[in-house]
Specification:
Number of helices of chain A: 13
Number of helices of chain B: 10
Distance between the termini of chain B: 25 Å
Strand order of the largest sheet of chain B: 1-2-3-7-6
Oligomer: heterodimer
Strand order of the largest sheet of chain A: 4-3-5-6-8-7-12
Largest sheet of chain B: 5 strands, parallel
Structural class of chain B: alpha/beta
Shape of chain A: globular
Largest sheet of chain A: 7 strands, mixed
Strand content of chain B: 5-15%
Shape of chain B: globular
Largest interface: A-B, 30 and 37 residues
Number of strands of chain B: 7
Helix content of chain A: 25-40%
Chain lengths: 336, 276
């Protein structure tokens, strides 16, 4: 795959986690772009950015358990002409060091890429201190920040490569665990800000990002067997969001479900709601995610089920949503 | 390097001029961080009129030395120095703080030529400087990073994260000043949040510490020269200063951390500066 010059290849994503894939891809990109440096805060192994260290020890910097300083230093390194890629857990990047990300990277306009692992409830067993269901909301509010939540390892690889071709700070949030691949290979179009239609449908649209995406696709297959046509939009880029794809879904299906491993306040669901409200076309929206609560401890897949982010939960929400009444507009094609 | 008497006089005169201009800008803009702008003046004058290499006509010149005002509220003093150094017209400072002006209390690097990092929130600039210096070293650049931290700013935990990282990564192509004026907004540092034994703390964090009188040019130059020669540890120059220095009725008074000046007070301040 080529994106303006940087190339990478992954043959065996079926047996690699998202994090392992990004570690590998970043290392391949590092061979081509000597400005790339990798930073972490005592999580080289956990985040897999340590893979880069093996090939480029002199371009790898461990800042210890001190995330605020790490992001400040990343800003300084970018000021010196480097392209820092910083990896830590989502909760530490977005919340612990949030003001440093906002002030030193976004306000200062520094070309730094963040790969935040263990996002959402993907580190379920660790409890709320290590979950992060707020990062999309936080990062989305920072002016100048681009926010991506890839669905699987291949998308993660694409997102990392695309972010390095993208001018300005980028936040990529991935999970911790082994997420089965959604895409069969690395051969698909990935563009920042462009949703991927994973499944066509005309009755209802599921707009999903990140870890729950595979479940959404499963839900679409099951719905199909039951005669319901479900569109699935993989909205990997939360900001800038693909307004066109959202509005096309509204026009075509009117019923929209968002799914995110994140609070429903401020993340994908909010972003989609803003687009729909702005355009003024009638639609019924349901937002699946954390409903103003902290997740219980549990295995990541179990938590997807508990909080209705899996195929069962999406289908249950779909059944309820199909009953929703939508005020008909006589002339649907009118501009508001 | 021993400063020649004429050179010393030139720098002292320059410091007076900068202080006067800080007062004049403050009078126009309605209020500024006077106390801290006045305590840092000799160090900024030493850097911009003798030590640092830069080209005001090419603010983004890659080989320039970098300066990060971590105590970003000293911005009014930095802005005056940058104007005088030729980065932009002094007329622009007439609109300081005003709606639409490039200049607010805390300088924005994207709006003000010569500013290497947008600061203001305390505890950021030292880490940024550490990153700049590490980035320069990795790429073989010979430019030097200078950073100025406030003493009250050293309450911030991130300063000590940065201090640890600079020592750990042996960042020696950077010189850090602490403007130790011993006052913060709510009062003396030792009453609000004690810093002493301050020098010991930096030493314990693995730094080469040089304590000086921050208003004495010879001591400033000697300390910077020593920092350039140090190859094992990062250097911090703990510069003992007087908050509000040069204006007799402002000196050592926390209430002048941020204040406005009417024309009568401004006149008194200018007279005090001129008397020396």
């Amino acid at each position: 795959m080529t994106t303006k010059g940087l190339t990478w290849t992954i043959d065996d994503a079926d047996h690699m986690t998202q994090a392992e894939v990004y570690g590998e891809v970043l290392t391949q990109l590092g061979k081509q772009d000597p400005s790339i440096v990798a930073l972490t805060a005592d999580l080289a192994n956990s985040t897999k950015i340590g893979r880069f260290q093996k090939d480029f020890p002199e371009r790898f910097f461990n800042f210890g358990i001190a995330e605020c300083n790490m992001f400040a230093a990343a800003s300084g390194m970018a000021a010196a002409g480097l392209t820092p890629v910083v990896s830590t857990f989502a909760v530490f990047a977005a919340l612990r060091a949030g003001e440093f990300v906002r002030t030193d990277l976004c306000y200062n306009k520094r070309n730094v890429k963040i790969i935040a692992t263990h996002s959402g409830t993907s580190f379920g067993q660790a409890g709320t201190t290590h979950h992060c269901t707020e990062d999309l909301a936080v990062m989305r509010s920072f002016a100048g920040m681009t926010v991506i939540a890839p669905a699987d390892a291949y998308e993660t690889a694409n997102a990392v490569a695309a972010s390095l071709e993208w001018d300005g700070p980028v936040y990529i949030r991935i999970g911790r665990s082994f997420e089965p691949p959604l895409h069969k290979s690395m051969d698909f179009d990935f563009e920042i800000g462009k949703a991927i239609t994973l499944h066509e449908g005309t009755d209802v649209t599921v707009i999903v990002a990140g870890r729950p995406t595979l479940g959404a696709l499963e839900a679409a297959e099951i719905a199909k067997q039951n005669g319901i046509s479900m569109r699935v939009l993989d909205m990997h880029t939360i900001k800038p969001i693909d307004e066109e794809a959202i509005m096309q879904a509204v026009m075509d299906t009117r019923r929209i479900i968002t799914v995110e491993d994140h609070s429903v306040n401020g993340g994908l669901g909010s972003a989609v709601a803003e687009v729909i409200a702005k355009n003024g076309k009638a639609a019924a929206l349901r937002r699946i995610g954390m409903q103003d609560e902290y997740a219980k401890v549990g295995y990541p897949d179990d938590l997807l089920h508990v909080y209705k982010m899996d195929a069962d939960g999406i289908l249950e929400t779909m059944q309820e949503l199909l009953k929703a009444e939508i005020e008909e507009d006589d002339d649907w094609e009118d501009e508001v | 390097m021993t400063l020649e008497p004429q050179e010393l006089q030139r720098l002292k005169d320059k410091a007076k001029q900068i202080r006067e201009e800080i007062v004049l800008v403050t009078e126009k803009c309605g209020g500024s961080h006077l106390g801290t702008a006045l305590s840092q003046t000799e160090m900024l004058v030493a850097l911009y009129y003798q030590i640092m290499k830069y080209d005001p006509k090419k603010p983004e010149w890659e080989e320039r030395d970098r300066f990060v005002l971590s105590k970003g509220h000293g911005g009014v003093g930095h802005a005056v120095v940058l104007a005088d150094a030729g980065f932009y017209s002094k007329d622009l400072l007439n609109d300081f703080n005003k709606t639409g002006s490039p200049f607010g209390m805390h300088l924005d690097r994207l709006k003000v030529a010569g500013v290497d990092a947008s600061t203001g929130s305390l505890g950021h600039g030292l880490g940024i400087s550490v990153g700049m210096a590490m980035g320069a070293r990795l790429q073989g650049f010979t430019w030097h990073t200078y950073c100025m931290v406030g003493d009250g700013e050293c309450n911030e935990g991130s300063i000590w994260e940065s201090a640890m990282s600079a020592a750990h990564h042996k960042v020696t192509n950077m010189t850090v000043f602490v403007d130790r004026n011993k006052l913060m907004i709510d009062g003396p540092t030792e009453e609000v949040m004690g810093l002493e034994p301050f020098v010991d703390k930096w030493q314990a964090f693995g730094w080469n510490v040089i304590e000086i009188d921050g208003h004495d040019f010879q001591q400033i130059f000697d300390a910077i020269e020593a920092s350039h020669k140090e190859t094992a540890k990062p250097t911090v120059i703990v510069a003992n200063t007087v908050k509000g220095k040069g204006v007799d009725f402002m000196e050592n008074k926390a209430s002048w951390h941020y204040a406005g000046l009417d024309s009568e007070m401004a006149q008194k301040a200018l007279e005090s500066i001129r008397r020396g």
